[in-house]
Amino acid sequence: MRTITFNGQRFSVLDDENVLDTLLRNNIAIAHGCRAGACQACMLMAKADQIPDDCQHGLSKVRIQQGYFLSCCCEPEQDMDIQLPDLKAEKHLATVTEKRLLSARTLSLRLQCRLRWRAGQYITLWLNDSARCYSIASVASIDDFIELHIQVYPDGAVSPSLANNINVGDALAIQGPFGECVYDNKQNQQNLLLIASGTGLAPLLGVARDALSQNHQHPIHLLFRSKQASDFYAVDALRKLKDQYPQFSFSLNSDEPAPDTKDSSTDTWQLHLRTHFAELRGSRVYICGSDEFVRQARKQCFMQGATARDIICEAFINFSPER
């Protein structure tokens, strides 16, 4: 049985247990969020030769060299001596400048912060010792704010507080940005297909606006999928883009299509893709949403001709009860 030593205390690691779970089981308070290595909230440090190879994915080369690892992904292969890193310098204070509902379950927060970021990346937002990842919908060259779209879960650890307790003028701690789901103007000769589910719209709305602001002339289509028609949001913003830029179009797809809008489709999103985008060879595809949705959409787009190199994905981690 492997052991970990933390602050002079030694703990046994159970079979199929990671470092984070071992510490939490022994009532050691460790900040954490997604439990899947995305938010990087649970980073710890150890000697390089004690760290397994598969628990540093997404960390910078500098962090890897310094012995950082993601405790939620680390199942020790030997005894480990671990310690908390000092991440204070990597957190930034952001001021809430606007807060509004985009739909019954979707909250928009706009933040002011001295931070370099790109549309489509994501930040980790901290509330006490809980952390959640949210994608950036705004465009740095156009907007002077970071905009987040947040699905509110009534029993969640973070989103209800953001919806009910955080006000304009409050300061929030954020970390990042992270992620590579961004527009690259080297692909300005490609058609762009953007496939979003739920608040996966946030990064792809940013990517679309970024591409258009850089004069991308080839067609850009955004397919917005939602389980319920009532969960569609920012449709007016999509229509304005369509009116302003002839190369931009969008479609809405739901299990319950809205009968009062010409933008909705009665097809399933898979059928809509097969019917309207049967040949994706040479296209650049961006997919954002839940892990299962991203997996299915990536497979279908690959089968319809998009190369693996041209499919850019950002999968949202599902939390219980909040993702």
Number of strands: 17
| CATH superfamily annotation of the largest domain | Nucleotide-binding domain of ferredoxin-NADP reductase (FNR) module
* Uncertain parts: 319-323
What sort of overall outline do the alpha carbons produce when their principal axes are compared?
globular
Query: Biggest sheet, strands in spatial order?
Result: 9-8-11-6-7-10
Q: What quaternary form is this?
A: single chain
Query: Could you state the order of secondary-structure elements as H and E?
Result: EEHEHEEEEEEEHEEHEHEEHEHE
- Calculate the terminal CA-CA distance, rounded to whole Å: 32 Å
Q: Main β-sheet, in a few words?
A: 6 strands, antiparallel
Task: List the domain count as a whole number.
Answer: 3
Q: Which CATH top level class of the largest domain fits?
A: Alpha Beta
Strand and helix layout:
Elements (H helix, E strand, L loop, with lengths): L2 E4 L2 E4 L6 H7 L17 E4 L14 H6 L1 E3 L9 E4 L7 E13 L2 E7 L9 E6 L2 E6 L10 E6 L7 H6 L6 E8 L13 E6 L3 H13 L6 E7 L8 H10 L3 E7 L9 E2 L3 H8 L7 E7 H13 L7 E6 L7
